[in-house]
Amino acid sequence: MSFKSDNCGPAHPAIIEALTTANQGFAPSYGTDDLTARTEARLRDIFEAPEASVHLVATGTAANSLALSTLTQPWQTIFCTPLAHIHTDECHAPEFYTGGAKLSLVGEGDKMTPEALQTAIEGWTLGDVHCSQRGPVALTQVTEMGRVYSLEELAALTQTAARYDLPVHLDGARFANALVALDCTPAEMTWKAGIDAVSFGGTKNGCLGVEAVIFFNPAKAWEFELRRKRAAHLFSKHRFLAAQMLAYLTDDLWLDMARAANAKAARLAEGLRGVPDCVFLAEPQANMIFATLPRATHQRLMRGGAHYGLNQGPLDTGAPDEPLSMRLVCDWSIPEDAIDHFVTLAKGD
Amino acid sequence: MSFKSDNCGPAHPAIIEALTTANQGFAPSYGTDDLTARTEARLRDIFEAPEASVHLVATGTAANSLALSTLTQPWQTIFCTPLAHIHTDECHAPEFYTGGAKLSLVGEGDKMTPEALQTAIEGWTLGDVHCSQRGPVALTQVTEMGRVYSLEELAALTQTAARYDLPVHLDGARFANALVALDCTPAEMTWKAGIDAVSFGGTKNGCLGVEAVIFFNPAKAWEFELRRKRAAHLFSKHRFLAAQMLAYLTDDLWLDMARAANAKAARLAEGLRGVPDCVFLAEPQANMIFATLPRATHQRLMRGGAHYGLNQGPLDTGAPDEPLSMRLVCDWSIPEDAIDHFVTLAKGD
Amino acid sequence: MSFKSDNCGPAHPAIIEALTTANQGFAPSYGTDDLTARTEARLRDIFEAPEASVHLVATGTAANSLALSTLTQPWQTIFCTPLAHIHTDECHAPEFYTGGAKLSLVGEGDKMTPEALQTAIEGWTLGDVHCSQRGPVALTQVTEMGRVYSLEELAALTQTAARYDLPVHLDGARFANALVALDCTPAEMTWKAGIDAVSFGGTKNGCLGVEAVIFFNPAKAWEFELRRKRAAHLFSKHRFLAAQMLAYLTDDLWLDMARAANAKAARLAEGLRGVPDCVFLAEPQANMIFATLPRATHQRLMRGGAHYGLNQGPLDTGAPDEPLSMRLVCDWSIPEDAIDHFVTLAKGD
Amino acid sequence: MSFKSDNCGPAHPAIIEALTTANQGFAPSYGTDDLTARTEARLRDIFEAPEASVHLVATGTAANSLALSTLTQPWQTIFCTPLAHIHTDECHAPEFYTGGAKLSLVGEGDKMTPEALQTAIEGWTLGDVHCSQRGPVALTQVTEMGRVYSLEELAALTQTAARYDLPVHLDGARFANALVALDCTPAEMTWKAGIDAVSFGGTKNGCLGVEAVIFFNPAKAWEFELRRKRAAHLFSKHRFLAAQMLAYLTDDLWLDMARAANAKAARLAEGLRGVPDCVFLAEPQANMIFATLPRATHQRLMRGGAHYGLNQGPLDTGAPDEPLSMRLVCDWSIPEDAIDHFVTLAKGD
User: Fold this and answer.
1) What does pTM read for this prediction?
2) In chain B, what residues touch C129 (CB-CB under 8 Å)?
3) How far apart are CA D322 and CA D331, in angstroms?
4) Residue C118 above 90 pLDDT?
5) Contact yes or no for B290/B326 (Cβ under 8 A)
6) Could you tell me the domains of chain C?
7) Which residues pair with B294 in a beta bridge?
8) Entry's PANTHER family (chains A, B, C, D) (predicted)?
9) Fewer CB in a 10 Å sphere around the end CB: N or C, chain B?
10) ipTM reported for the complex, 2 dp
11) According to the model, what pLDDT value does residue D313 have?
12) Residue among C91, C99, C133 whose CB faces A75 most closely
C-alpha cells in the first residue's frame, strides 16, 4: 500500500521484456546503434518535430541539468518557482552543470503567473554587469503540487519569456500524466505552446530509468552531446536506454500507464473527500494528491501499513487533531483495492 | 564478428533475468532498498573490507570521475599515463567533476613505473602556491593496452604514492579480467596492494550498465553521496542497478565471464601469431589485443565483415603492406567460430 | 557634489604617499616581502587575534568570494539577506568561486533576525541528500541599507548559526564605518561576537583598492592561499597592497576617515529632515542614507548637478509628487558645503 | 643586486605620479570614468585597432585566464608549451576560469613549432565526443626561456591554428620587451601576425599592477565584462588601473623601460660570456637569461648578496663543479654597476 512515489513502483513488464529483446548479439555503442536511431525518430514523430534533437539519459535530474546548462550561461539566472524540483531536490545539480548559475524564485507556490514571472525578470536589471543576467524560464508539468498548467497558462508564460528573449524549459518528469490530463498532443503541450526544450520523463511512469531531452531547435545538439559525455551520462550500452523508451512509446503504453495512474489518484481523491478533516492543499489534476489529515488519522494509516510522504512532523507527539500534510502518489501499478483500503483506514470505520 | 569493444556485446541473460526478479511491487527509492543493502554487503564481503563504503553508478566515467573528485582538490593534479581513459576518453569529466584539476601525464605508455611516477610527482614543487599541487595517482587495471599490472608492480607504485602521502585510485573497468589473469583475490589486487579507491566495473563484462565505487576508508562516504546526487547519478529506481550487480557477483558469474573473455582473446592471439606480418604492440594479458596488420589484411578482414577498432588510417589508400594498428576486444559472448573465422580471413587462405 | 558611492571618491593622500614610500628598490614578490609581513602583524594586533590568518586582495568581491568559498562546499547553501551584496551585486562570484553553492535568502530586508535565520536553516532538511546542505551565514556590516547590527544582534545571529554548527562570515566593506558607529573594538565586532571570518574593507574608505580577509581560525590559511592564486588574485608586486593597508591602519587614519564619513552623512540626514516629503527608508547609522523624495525634487537636484543613486524611475515622466527612492553615500572627502548645497537644492528655497 | 624577477623591481616614478594626478575628486566607478575611456582609446590607437575591445585587470594571471576562458569551451583543450606560464605558474587558474578545460602540451621547450602544433592538434580527433575538443592556441612572447618568436614564426603558428579554425592568444606579460627586441609595431606582433587576443602586460615593466586584455574582434566584449566581474576582477576605483596604463603608454615610457631592461640583460649576458663554465640554455633575446654555472660559482654569488632564481639544487651539497641552472631577469631599474658587480663576483677574480 505504497503511495510514497511513482519511482517506488515497478517497471511495466513490457519495458523489461524490451530489454531482453534488445539484448541480442552485438550493437554499436554510445548511441550509434539502430535501436537508438529508431527511438529518436519515434520521439520526433510523436512530437511532430522532424528537426528536433533528441537525447536519452537515465535520470530526471540529468535531463533537467543538462538541458538547462545548454540554455544557461554561468552568469545568468534561471527563473523557477520555490517548489521547483530543480531548486529543492537536485542537490545543486543545476548550479553544478551550469558552472554557477543562480535560481531566482518566482512567486510563492508550485505554479508561476505571468505577472510574477515578469516581476522576477525585471528584478534583475538588463545590462547591469554587477547583477545576475536574465536566463531561461523553467516550468514543471505536472507541477510539484500535482497541478497541471493549462495550454493557455503555458502560452501566457512563454509569451512573457519571449518578450524578454528568454528560452523556456519544461521539466516533464510526469509529462505523460499532464498530457492525458489535458487531453492534448505532445506538440500542443510543448513547442506549439512556446516551449523550447523539454525533459520527457519515462522513469516515473513505468520505465526502469530513462528520460529524453528534446530541443525543438537543434542548434545546440552537438554541445549537448559534449555536455552529456563530459557529465558521464552517455551510456556505452545505449541500446538499453533506447529499448525502454521505444517500448514505452509503443502501442500507447506510456499514455495507458499515465491514464491508469491519474485514474487511480482520482479514485483516491474521491475517497479522501469522504474522510473527516481531510483538506486538499491543491486540486489533484494528475497522479499526486497533497492534503492534510489529523495526526491521529496518520497514525492509524501508518499502523495499518500505508507508506507515503508525511511532510511535517513529528507524528508521535502533539495534538491528535493537528493537521499534518502529506503527499500521495499513484503509479500505474497500484491496485485499486490498496486505494480503497487506504481510504477505509483513513475513515477509521 | 565484432571485436569492436566489450561494450558492444550483450548482457548476460542472468543479469536481465535479475531485473525481472527485482521488478516486484514497490521498493524504496534512491538506494534505500533491501536489494541495494544486500549488494553493498556482498561487495564488502568479496573485497574482505567490512568498513568500506560502496556506491553504485551506471557508467564507468561516472565511477572514475566521482571517485577521483572525492580524492582531489581543484588545485591538485592527478597523475596518470598518457593513455589513461580518464585523459583520452572522458571528454574532461575528471576536470569537470573536480572543478578544474589537472592531469599530469606519467611516462609514455599504458603502464607507469615507480621511477616515472616519482619524476612526475617531483615535477610539481611541494609548497609552491603557483604550481599544481600534488594529488592522487590514477592507475588502470587492465591497462588501456590490454596489459595487467602484477601485484608487485601495483605495490611498488602505491608505495611511491604513499611516500608523498598521495592516495591511489584504480580504474577497474575491466577489473574482473585483470583479476582472473592474476589469479588473486579482489583484496590482494586493491587494498592489500595499497589501493585506496576502486571503480569496479560491471558494464564491460556482461551487465547492462552498472559500476561500483569502493572506498576502503569510508571517511568520505557522505561526501560521495552528495557528489553523486549533485551530478545526477543517483538512480531513483536504484534496485535495478543493485539487481545487476548482485546477479553479476552471484555464483562467480563475473569471474566466469571474465575467464571466458580472456580465454577467447588468448585463442585469438594464438591464431594471430600465425598471420603473416602480424606484430603485437603489447603482450595480450586479458581480453584485448593490440597489434598491427598490413593494410591489405585489414581490407580483407573488413570486406569479410569483421568489426574492430582501426587506430590509424586511411584504410583505402596507401601501400598495401603498410602496417596499420588495431584493437581487438573479446567479450564473454563472442563465439569461438567467429574468432577462428577472423583468423582465417586474416591469413587470407 | 557626488553622493553616488564611496568608491567614487579619492584615496586619502597619505595612502598614495605610502605607495611612493614603498616604491624603493627591489622587494620579494607575491607577498613574501617585509611590508606585507608587517601589515599582517598589524591587522592581527588590531583584531587582538595573534593566531589569525590574514590575506590581502584588491577588491571587495574577491574578499567575499574567496572567504566564502573557503567556508562552503559546492553542495551547501549560504544564508544571506535578499539585499546582500553577494547576492545582488557580484554577478555570481560566490557561485563561481564555490563551484555552484546556492544562496538562500533570509527574511525580507537588509538585516536578518535569529528567527528568520532559523527558519531558513530549517528549510533545508539535515541529512537529506537531495536538497541543499546547510552552509555558512553571511552578514553585512554596515548593511546594504546603511544600518548597523548591534553587538547583541550579531551575537544572537552567530549563536543561532552555532547551534547548527555553521560558520559566520562578515562582509565588512564598510567595517570602519560600522565600528565607529558602535564605538567598539574590532575584536568585539568580530570574533568576540562569534564571527569566524571577515572581509575587512579599505577601498570604500579612502584606499585605492585593498581589502583584508581574516580567518580567526587559521586552519584553512594554506587553502585560502591556493584559492587566491588560482583565482588570479595574488599580486606579484604585493607591497603595493600592503602599503595601502598599513598606511590605512596607521595613526587611526581608517577610523578618522570613517568618523568623517559618518559625520557627514549625519549632517546630510539632519538637513534632509527639513526637506518637504523626504521619507527615510531606514534610520541612517553610518555613511549611507536611503530615503524617498518627490520626483520634482529629484529633478531639481539633478539639474543642480547632484550625483547619487536613484533606485527607481523614470525620472522624466510621471507625477511630480510621486516619491522615488534614492541612495546617498558620503565618503571621508566630501565637502560640508556640498552637503549643505544639496540640502538647499532639495528644499528648493 | 636582484635578478630575481621583473616583478621585484619598483614601479617607475611617473606611474606613481600618475596615481596622484588621477586622485582628484570624484570619478565614476567600475570603469565608466573618462580616464579609462582615454586609456582604452590610447590602446586601440597604439594597436591600430579601432574596433578592438580593451579591458584592464590588475594581474597577468587574470588577463590570461579571463582571455582564454572567453575563447575556450570547458570541453576544449588549449594548446601550449610545457613551459607555458599558464601551465606551470597559475595554480590552475585557466582550468578554473574555463570550467575544466585541458591544457595539451606542445613540443618540449619554450617555443612551439608549426609541426609540433599540428601533431598536438591532430592528437585529438575531430568530432569524437569522447575526447578533448580542439581549442585555442596559447603562445607566450617573450617566451618563458627569454626567447622571442620572430614575426615569421608567429605567422606560421597562427596559420597552422587557422587551418583548424582555432583562435590564438598571446601571453604578453613581457610584450614590450619582445616588441623592442623585434623592432616592430604592436599591430605587426599581434593581429597582423594572426593573433586574436593578447594579454598586454604592464606590471613586469614598471607598473604597480595593470594589464590590458585586447580582443581584436570585439564580438565577445560583453561576455568578457561579465566574466571579469564574476571573477571579482572589476575594480571599483578603476581610474587607478587606467592611470597606470595611460602613464605607461605616454611618451614611449613603456618602450624606454623595455629597451633599458633588454640592454641591461644584454650587458649581463655579455659579461657572463667571460665567466668560466657559464653555459647558456637559450640565446637571450629580451630581458631574461637562462644559463648554468658551477655550484661553487653560485655559492660565491649568493654569499656576495646576489638574488636570482636557482632552478635546481641543493646549493650546499654536491660537487663544486656541478652545473646548476639559473634564471636572471633584468628590469628597467637595475643599475649597471649591479650587473658589473654580479659578473665580477661570478668570475671570482
Assistant:
1) 0.97
2) 30, 225-226, 229, 234
3) 29
4) yes
5) yes
6) 13-252 (3.40.640.10), 254-347 (3.90.1150.10)
7) B323
8) L-THREONINE ALDOLASE-RELATED (PTHR48097), LOW SPECIFICITY L-THREONINE ALDOLASE (PTHR48097:SF5)
9) C
10) 0.97
11) 64
12) C91
